[in-house]
Amino acid sequence: MFRMWIILFLLFASYTIAVYRNCDEKDVTVTNPDVHALAGWKVWQRNNCQSCHQIYGLGGYMGPDLTNVISDSGKSKQYLQTFIKYGTGKMPDFHLSDSEVNNLIAFLHWIDKSGRSKVPIERVTSTWNYNFSK
User: Fold this and answer.
1) Domains of the chain
2) Model confidence pLDDT, tens digit, residues 73-104
3) Is the dihedral angle over the CA atoms 19, 24, 25, 31 positive or is it negative?
4) Can you state the angle between helices 35-46 and 98-113, rounded to 10 degrees?
5) Is 94 helix (H, G, I), strand (E, B) or coil?
6) What Å distances lie between residue 51 and 1, 64, 70, 91, CA to CA?
7) What is the pLDDT of residues 4-17, one digit of tens each?
8) 54-55 and 58-59: which strand pairing?
9) E strands of the chain, at which residues?
10) Stated pTM of the model
11) For residues 2 and 24, what is the distance between their CA atoms, to the nearest angstrom?
């Protein structure tokens, strides 16, 4: 029995080392959020946005993942302000003030700089694992 635990531990340790050695090599420098991003984070939490939306793939599934919504070329700042301020058929109008909307967008800007939520298709293998060596 003890031998099996040793083997499992060695497998786990080997896998962990392989994952960290072959992880995404892009050097991401993330700064601490500014005052507006922190205020936007509080708006995000107070309105329970994560119950419908995801960040880094974590959260609800009713709305889209918002990790990289800022860098999406089809969505301007005006588009985001209008969408957040007035909602849509699925997204309710939370009656946010203009400053709350702008702070929420500042929070999404900060999130957008920190990484990607979608793995590029060329990095997905036939077993649906990620290949970070490409």
Assistant:
1) 1-28+121-134 (no CATH), 35-113 (1.10.760.10)
2) 788 888 889 989 998 888 899 999 999 999 99
3) negative
4) 110
5) coil
6) 43, 11, 20, 11
7) 999 999 999 998 88
8) antiparallel
9) 54-55, 58-59
10) 0.66
11) 35
